[in-house]
């Protein structure tokens, strides 16, 4: 996927944008008699189409986790599973073994606090606290990895749904050569339709969602695939599971 640098946050808050959009769409519907029924019929047909493709077995949480991992690994991501009380120590060990020296992440969130406590002395935690202009050289030259906590995921495509914020902007998953993403297994959806429906995007979709399905990659005119041209060269994904669902560490 194409990753673009951070831009300044919009002046209008997300809630104000959602209300304005709702008002505009409401006026359009009110001025188009009969259109609401047509839209509802289309929505129903779409719901039925996706529901017919799912079975109880394939849409179970263990099945979603398995498919999610397979699809990510097919896109050259490194994936491992761990329980809630073990993932931070395992990730810290892997970071140290890979020679990572500085990791950029939100140290104030629960997952960030857990990782910060688990990191050995050889790996330093770096918070995103300054405007990018104030530390751009340090960011691009010394940060080895960026760690983000994923909002949710799409099993059918192995896609991470990331919702950037002030303490963990898009830069965290864009600039460092290694992007490490943590996702909780219970936030996985079967497909994009399920994600939009279950999270009720139509009632207030976040203004900035980033969908990631592997490391940054591109092909030149000779169709030679290259990784890291427009973002991280490597993607690690940590799936936090319940003890009963945990598979052997990859």
Task: Report what the structure shows.
The longest helix is centred in the N-terminal third of the chain and has 18 residues, at 35-52. This protein has two domains: 12-52; 58-245, 3-Layer(aba) Sandwich (Rossmann fold). The chain is α/β, with parallel strands linked by helices and 250 residues long. Helix 4 (87-97) crosses helix 5. It is built from eight helices and twelve strands.
What fraction of residues sit in β-strands?
Answer: 15-25%
Order of the strands making up the biggest sheet: 1-12-7-4-2-3
CATH architecture field of the largest domain: 3-Layer(aba) Sandwich
How many separate domains make up the residues? 2
Structural class: alpha/beta
Distance between the termini: 25 Å
Radius of gyration: 20 Å
Question: How is the main sheet built?
Answer: 6 strands, parallel
Return the CATH topology of the largest domain.
Rossmann fold
- Report the average pLDDT across residues: 85
Poorly predicted spans: 244-250
Shape: globular
Output the CATH homologous superfamily of the largest domain: NagB/RpiA/CoA transferase-like
């Amino acid at each position: 996927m194409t990753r673009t640098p951070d831009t300044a946050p919009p002046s209008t808050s997300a809630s104000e944008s959602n209300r304005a959009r709702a008002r505009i769409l409401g006026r359009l519907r009110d001025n188009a008699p009969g259109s609401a029924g047509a839209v509802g019929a289309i929505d129903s047909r779409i719901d039925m189409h996706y529901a017919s493709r799912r079975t109880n077995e394939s849409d179970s949480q263990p099945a979603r986790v398995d498919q999610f991992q397979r699809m990510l690994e097919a896109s050259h991501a490194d994936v491992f599973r761990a329980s809630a009380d073990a993932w931070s120590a395992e990730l810290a060990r892997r970071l140290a073994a890979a020679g990572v020296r500085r990791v950029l992440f939100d140290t104030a969130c629960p997952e960030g606090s857990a990782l910060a406590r688990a990191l050995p002395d050889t790996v330093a935690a770096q918070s995103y606290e300054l405007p990018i202009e104030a530390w751009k050289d340090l960011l691009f030259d010394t940060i080895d990895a960026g760690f983000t906590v994923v909002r949710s995921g799409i099993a059918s495509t192995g896609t991470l749904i990331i919702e950037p914020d002030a303490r963990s902007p898009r830069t965290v998953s864009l600039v460092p050569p290694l992007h490490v993403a943590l996702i909780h297994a219970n936030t996985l959806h079967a497909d994009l339709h399920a994600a939009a429906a279950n999270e009720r995007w139509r009632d207030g979709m976040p203004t900035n969602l980033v969908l990631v399905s592997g490391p940054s990659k591109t092909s030149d005119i000779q169709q030679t695939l290259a990784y890291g041209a427009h973002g991280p060269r490597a993607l690690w994904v940590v799936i936090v599971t319940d003890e009963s669902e945990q598979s052997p560490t990859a």
